[in-house]
Amino acid sequence: MVRESVVNQDMATQAPLKEFIEQHIRYSLGKQDYGLSQREWFQAIALATRDRLVDAMLDTETRYEKVKAKRLYYLSLEFLIGRSLGNNLDNLGIRQMCIDTLKDFDVNLAEVQEAERDAALGNGGLGRLAACFLDSLATLGMPGFGYGINYEYGLFRQEIDNGYQVEKPDNWLSHGTPWQIERPEDAVFIPIYGRVESSVDRHGAYNPMWLDWKVLIGVPHDMPIVGHGGHTVNYLRLYSARSSQDFDMQIFNHGDYIQAVQQKIATETISKVLYPSDSVEAGRELRLTQEYFLVACAIRDIVRRYRKDYHNFDDFSSQVAIQLNDTHPALSVAELMRVLIDENDLEWDKAWEITQATLGYTNHTLMPEALEKWSVPLFETLLPRHLQIIYQINQQFMEVVTKKWPGDLEKESRVSLIEEGRPKQVRMAHLSILGSHSVNGVSELHSNLVKTQLVPEFYELFPERFNNKTNGVTQRRWLLQANPKLGNLLLKTLGSGWITDLNKLRGLEKYAGDSSFQEEFQSIKRINKERLGVTIHDRNHVSVNPDSLFDVHIKRIHEYKRQLLKVMHIIHEYLLFVEDGKAPTVPRTYVFAGKAAPGYWAAKQIIKLINNVGQVINHDARVGDMMKVVFVPDYRVTLAEQIIPAADLSEQISTAGTEASGTSNMKFAMNGGITMGTWDGANIEIFEEVGEGNYFTFGLRAEKVHEMEKTGSYRPRDHYANPDVKRVVDALGSNLFSPREPGLFRWIYDALLEKDTYFHLADLPAYLASQGEVGQEFKRREIWQKKAIMNVARSGKFSSDRTIRQYADEIWDIKPVL
Fold first, then answer.
1. Which of 667, 760, 787, 794 is catalytic?
2. Which residue spans within 674-773 are E strands per DSSP?
């Protein structure tokens, strides 16, 4: 393969890979090299690869120690890693070596890779962004490490039964994983529950004592993260929860063996499953416990590492940067203060100065339901000392607010860390902002909305803290690995520089109108579509036409992401065809994928709608191959790696002002998918980069949406007067797509006409018009290919390498150590 031109020569001269594989087959698996299952081959190859990762990881640590490098610790409840074997082989530069070695065993690497389970450590874009950041940190040679939870069960495995989402356990660790290195010697002890007793120290100063707490144990498991070229290997440290003893012996000695076992199981539940439902109090308690467990394990480990080299905390913020990935790790503010004050005897003001100088906070959402709040009674039960610290932080903050806006009780109420109500709530976003020296959004629009709409008072108080860091994705994963044929075309055409400097793709611009290059580019797209077609046939039992326009909407199922708007377009096209005899301009295959939160009824109903619409259209002989609608189940990283390279049209159609950034939009553009998007999130920056005419856009702007929401002036029934809108809405209110379940989708009809929270009806006419342009453009294949190539050529800004450089320079103050 052409990309082997960038092989790391140091790796290539090490002992033969075959020798390592044979040793692991014999001594790690206790097997011989015949009759092995694909799973066993995967384990042996992964372990042999891990040996090289560990050598490089130890060398990397030596480099960091030698120069006393400042370190970045990235705290996130999610790291959506996906599969690791292919990524590690590529970044080490030994894929071809592995392929050649396996030929001696008559083993196919591609088949072996299918045996690896996706590491189900995340939910969606937030977790995948964290994974991309780790890749970029290592590629850039920067000392950056992830901290998370070692979930035994992922979000869930999605199955579709009669069109409905069914959640199944996703026990991705059922066979273990060869990538993790357990570090029991680095286990940390975490207090929880108990009570706070007021007392004074020997000098008469207030000295609260946290008493009668229980203990959790966090056992770290390190997953090596290799950068491109294999020179830097950092790690993702994931914590598993263990009970403080195998059993509570006091309970055991009283003869209640079952209760002792149940207590052990309850403790270890903390790291069992990603994101339990918070719809009931037990679920909320577990979720908050998970957030505290992550933060407490990470802070204790970070402080312990720092204290190896430093006897006091004077240099802490100059040696340590901690980034909070959304509000989930917000308790870092209170926990770091507690550790500094209670365990290391620092004065409050000094501890607060260190905390703010160390922490940075990334906001990822404007959606109210995603801005976490936790009830004060729950805090009092779980974390009484932390609640006390939060109240003290708030008291001092209120003094600042009173000076700024004397007598303005409304402003005081809006910015307080404590939201009044029954019960009172702790606002975690406010805590994150107050406890950090930097607050960033993840696209230009989003960062502006954070300042002007989400927390304008905080921006007025601390304008210097607010900044933007537009998201990015790693091209190593989302182009070189996910789309190897396109990757090889780019290597052949431009060389390998773009792998670590995506701006070098600009060199493609001069080939955008070249007919021979277009032919190669189009051929690769068709091969990717054929590959996806096989997957669709296997999973959905639907045959799709690879020459049709692949129109793709893949992301978490949520009303603001507007899968419903996409379905409304499909219904419009279908009714035009079967009722008016107007065939679509070009054949289209509509591809959906995504998971709905188990307790999100409306989102799960939208999945049912998509499947029902597909059932009707795909079995209508009048339509034939002109329209196909598929919902591909169990969306995850590995499935995205198949869908994205096959897409012609990328649907990024959230209501303007609701999507913080998006990252799938970047992946599509990087792979030659043309964006159909609202003026929202990072779509705007994609449009600015790829240039007028190389994208499709429509719909209300964020400021107009905000104005209509604020004034209550939006009346969806006004738009219902439009004949196209009326026909689609009436179809949803009828039983056309639910003949066996009458009235099933009537709620959608009612919701659209009564409230239409996300402005579907307002945007539908413009969306239909823009989709009409898409059909006309796709017919002009040379023009379409040129646009697609220009999207690839101008996607350089959206590398996570650029994002990480900006974080490193402007927030973390960390440098490459090469």
1. 667
2. 674-677, 696-697
